[in-house]
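Continuing from the previous page...

OK, I double-checked the sequence for Multicopper oxidase domain-containing protein against my notes and this is the correct one:
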Amino acid sequence: MKKLSIIFISIVIVLLTGCQHKLLDSSSSNEDNKDTRQEENGTIHHHMHQNESDAQPMKERIHENEDTHRNHHMQMMGQEQTLQSSTGENELIVPPLLEPIKQSNDDVYYKIEAKEGKTEIFPNTKTNTLGYNGDFLGPAIRVQKGQNAHIAFKNSLKEDTTVHWHGLIVGGSADGGPHDVIQPGEERDITFKVQQEEATLWFHPHPLGKTAKQVYEGLAGLLLIEGKYDEQFLYGKNDFPLIIQDKTFTESYQLDYASAYHPNGTIGNTILMNGTINPKLTVPKEKIRLRLLNGSNTRSYTFSFSNKMSFEQIASDGGLLNEPMKMEAMTLAPAERAEIIADFSKMNDDVNLMAGEDIVVLPIHLKDKKSKNIAHPLDPAERVTITEEEKNLAVSKHIELFGMGPHVTINGKKFDPERIDFTQDKGVTEIWEVYNKPDMVGTLHPFHIHGTQFKIVSINGEKPPAHLQGYKDTISLQPGDKAKIAVKFEEPGVYMYHCHILEHEDNGMMGQVQVQ
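Thanks. Re-ran it with the corrected sequence; updated structure tokens here:
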């Protein structure tokens, strides 16, 4: 009977998927019924709504996750996962700082190897994983503005890969998109000049059709551009990167991507922080810098503290905000980053970092001893402003994100590596309008552009909230959202733009712009 039930459920899902495909192809006749997918407690829900405005009011949009995070189940076309809280059994692993081979004021040299590994995620058990220079995940690479970074990269995997520098302003030849394939056993020298102020960036693979699997199995590392805040905080002492990912493990504690895979985004029931299961973080009673990276394939998270304390967001994807933003909750979609400062100096009790109302992602234990270190807010070296010229520029590129699962498209097309979708001149700012078109079924799309940091001019016709007024490389758009962004490329080359739900990207929700 159990087998018959499973077969019946599978048939229903297949039939629903087929119906969805037909509905997507007949969108013009179904405009009165639109689905919206909302992120709740690190979960995703589909629900029907009728004749709601595409342009959701900005105030509601900012707080929608805080107001509606009530449920811990992921429901995606028959897929359901319950996210488990951290029990705080294991001290958080901090990604090691990679030692350069050699360096000077002008140049820094590193070696990176993508390789297979075996990691003791669970006690007394080895899980097959992928990693950079180690068994799982990767190190943190530090560079400075003005330096020439030289990366000697080796692919020791059994399949091809690339290394994409997510958020880096870089020439197309070094960006690491799907054209820059590195075969098994091949070595590649990659060189780029760091042109940005301090920021928390990252690197991950980007091979065509294989990105989601390789990231899920462990390929992700940090690229840290150093700056003034590094003089106030010490990495691993009161400055901690937090790479949050969700995974599903088999009964034998393995990562089986093929079994976990879902075309609308692969999700998990187990939180890993920096590759640590059931993590906790022990910190001194002082101001602590946390660099958050949503490294999940699909899941979004709304972060807050269990005692409802406020914190200051000091940076977004591309670097420092014009001024720190005081807040009590913050949502990150896949690939988005944020740096926050949490002041624990006057606290007596431990606190938990939460994802939604009830999911503990990181218990934080406070040491009794207070530190003498007092961090002060710093102004960015370059303030981010929308110029009058940018405000008055007409939209020159229209991006329409549509569909879900295997039926995702941009402007009605799937990715073709032989097709250039747009061209743009180097050093010239253009306004891109990015629209998440809703239909019978809608879903969030985090939209990412390679090789640049853009500025958000407006979302649904309104000025973006202050925490979105910094440099960004990824913007999260709910169904019906329409954003105008000011985009400028500093280097020539061919660059990808795509949805950063990695299964959507692999299913063809990607295009390319040639900069000349």
